[in-house]
Amino acid sequence: SYLASMINWSSGLFKFLIYLTPILMMFTGIPPVNKFTIPLAVITVVYLILSWTAVEVASNGHASFISSELFSMTSFWTQIRATFRWFFFARRRQQFVVTSKRGRQSKSVLRFVMPHLILIGVSFVSLGWGWGKLGLGLSNDFYRPIIPTVWIVFHLWLAFIVVKRALWPDNRRFAQRHQVVLPVLYETVDGNHTQGMAITSDLSEAGAGMVAYHRFPLMTRLNVTIQQGSKKI
């Protein structure tokens, strides 16, 4: 388990083979195993059940299969590049660069999503090839393309989400806002010294959003105490 965690960055090649297998099945008509048998199906199902149960237990019920697969789709090409760089380039020539965490590092995201766009294009071509042979009478096996089609469509959906999110507008905020609800004690800094309670709506490096049960005039100054358990901020 420790070894698997340490070399997780090398899993991109494995995921790439997973994405490539159903596409090759559509082009060649050759399945990845010689023969589908009941023992093979039982072993596969038991393996999947045990693996997912272990993930559910380890995550205390917060695991997400879709989120895990989406992360793999997002990062598989970066992981492949990291693996090839580690194997084929001298590590002493590599440099560790601390990049800015404020927004994007580049104005163009095309080179980051190009592998996903290529995967989408090849997937559509493979679907057209596999089902086109049936329509043209070059094949009479209707069931052969069904299994690879299911996986190709699933991977297409994941790749489409990656590209869609990559094309979102750049976040112009200096600091990311996190939705956090904490109790707040406030006191106005004026002649009235009004006191009351409120709650936070979000927190960030630049400040906090607050929802109060009292209407304040514009430019009212407040002394605010945010409580988290026994700690006061």
Secondary structure topology:
Elements: H1 2-6, H2 12-28, H3 38-58, H4 65-88, H5 110-135, H6 146-166, E1 183-188, E2 195-204, E3 207-212, E4 222-228, E5 231-232
Antiparallel strand pairs: 1-2, 1-4, 2-3, 4-5
Helix pairs in contact: 2-4, 2-5, 2-6, 4-6, 5-6
Describe it for me?
By secondary structure, this protein is α+β, with helices and mostly antiparallel strands. Helices cover 49% and strands 13% of the residues. It has six helices and five strands. The chain has helices at residues 2-6, 12-28, 38-58, 65-88, 110-135, 146-166; strands at 183-188, 195-204, 207-212, 222-228, 231-232. It has a five-stranded antiparallel beta sheet with strand order 3-2-1-4-5, with no helix packed on it. α2 runs parallel beside α5 (110-135), α4 crosses α6 (146-166) and α5 (110-135) runs antiparallel to α6 (146-166). The longest helix is centred in the middle third of the chain and has 26 residues, at 110-135. It is elongated and about 90 Å long. The two termini are 40 Å apart. The mean pLDDT is 84.
